[in-house]
């Protein structure tokens, strides 16, 4: 009987230690954000749809409270590559975080929510909301960031078929357009696209082709020609090339933002 009680006691202690270890493992710190994260960001600007903004880029964290941001914006149909800016961040134990940038007198503030920590002790991604990066204080932003997972990208990092969805935010309220389909990268600079467009409830399917390039930091560009008109895309790779964020501009000045995921 004593041996059974002792065995039961040991088992309870073991389970308790395992639970405590699991709880400890889920505690977040500044070190939980380390490395480069690709992100997409969309901003709704009150009372002025012509200033609607979509953003893609990368945020690089040092694991000790410092972050640098590299971004490309489409503001009202105008594509702008922004200078690299630096800021600070602080992570709470529950996985929430605050991030701040000071740019020419404008304060950009973001609230973050980190997802699960990997075996390397780093969060795989995070959701965020913020204000200020569109240069307009009434902008309310939201987005998602994913660890890039690669130290260096090449054209070969994007290869195979990617399911995608793109939202077109027109400069007026007259059009509402969503596009979904599959884009196929050949790993050498060519891309083909099969798509279905839903514009105000009217469906239009088609296909097109184009080219792409990508720098070592995972940021690149692509050009395709749906419906005979050129669409220029800024692309940002993440998850070792398994996911791509898309920022576009067309001849009509629409703000286009989308995500493509490897099939």
Task: Describe the overall structure.
- The N and C termini lie far apart (58 Å).
- Helices cover 9% and strands 57% of the residues.
- It is mainly β and 263 residues long.
- It has one helix spanning 2-25; strands spanning 34-45, 53-62, 66-75, 78-81, 85-91, 96-103, 106-114, 125-131, 139-147, 159-169, 177-186, 190-199, 202-214, 219-224, 231-238, 243-249, 255-262.
- β16 (243-249) and β17 (255-262) form a beta hairpin.
- The protein is built from one helix and 17 strands.
- Mean pLDDT is 84; it is low at 8-24 and 134-138.
- It has two domains: 30-147, Quinohemoprotein amine dehydrogenase alpha subunit, domain 2 (Lipocalin); 155-262, Lipocalin.
- The strands form two sheets. It has an eight-stranded antiparallel barrel with strand order 1-2-3-5-6-7-8-9. Strands 10-11-12-13-14-15-16-17 form an eight-stranded antiparallel beta barrel.
Q: What's the helix and strand layout?
A:
Blueprint: H1 2-25, E1 34-45, E2 53-62, E3 66-75, E4 78-81, E5 85-91, E6 96-103, E7 106-114, E8 125-131, E9 139-147, E10 159-169, E11 177-186, E12 190-199, E13 202-214, E14 219-224, E15 231-238, E16 243-249, E17 255-262
Q: Which value, in Å, is the CA radius of gyration?
A: 22 Å
The helix fraction, in percent, is under 10%
How many DSSP helices?
1
CATH superfamily of the largest domain: Quinohemoprotein amine dehydrogenase alpha subunit, domain 2
Sum up the overall morphology in one term: globular
DSSP strand content: over 45%
What is the number of E strands? Answer: 17
Name the structural class: mainly beta
For the largest beta-sheet, the strand count, sense and barrel status come to: 8 strands, antiparallel, barrel
The number of domains: 2
CATH topology of the largest domain: Lipocalin
Which CATH C-level class of the largest domain is it? Mainly Beta
pLDDT below 50 for ≥5 consecutive residues: which ranges? 8-24, 134-138
The secondary-structure element order is HEEEEEEEEEEEEEEEEE
Distance between the termini: 58 Å
Spatial order of strands in the largest sheet: 1-2-3-5-6-7-8-9
The appropriate CATH architecture of the largest domain is Beta Barrel
């Amino acid at each position: 009987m004593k041996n059974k009680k002792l065995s039961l006691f040991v088992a309870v202690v073991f389970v308790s230690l395992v639970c405590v270890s699991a709880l400890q493992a889920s505690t977040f710190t500044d070190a939980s954000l380390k490395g480069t994260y690709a992100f997409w960001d969309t901003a709704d600007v009150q009372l002025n749809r012509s200033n609607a903004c979509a953003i893609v880029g990368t945020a690089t964290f040092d694991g000790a409270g410092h972050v640098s941001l590299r971004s490309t914006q489409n503001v009202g149909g105008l594509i702008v590559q922004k200078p690299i800016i630096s800021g600070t961040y602080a992570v709470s134990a529950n996985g929430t975080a605050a991030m701040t940038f000071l740019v020419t007198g404008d304060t950009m503030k973001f609230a973050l929510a980190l997802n699960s920590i990997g075996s390397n002790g780093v969060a795989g991604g995070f959701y965020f909301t913020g204000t200020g990066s569109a240069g307009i204080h009434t902008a309310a932003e939201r987005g998602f960031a994913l660890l890039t997972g690669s130290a260096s990208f090449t054209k070969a990092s994007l290869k195979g078929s990617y399911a995608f969805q793109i939202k077109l935010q027109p400069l007026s309220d007259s059009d509402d357009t969503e596009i979904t389909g599959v884009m196929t990268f050949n790993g050498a600079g060519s891309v083909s696209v099969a798509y279905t467009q839903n514009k105000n409830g009217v469906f239009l399917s088609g296909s097109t082709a184009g080219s792409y390039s990508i720098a070592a930091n995972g940021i690149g560009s692509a050009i395709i020609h749906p419906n005979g008109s050129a669409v220029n895309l800024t692309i940002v790779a993440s998850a070792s090339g398994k996911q791509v964020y898309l920022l576009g501009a067309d001849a009509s000045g629409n703000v286009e933002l989308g995500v493509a995921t490897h099939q």
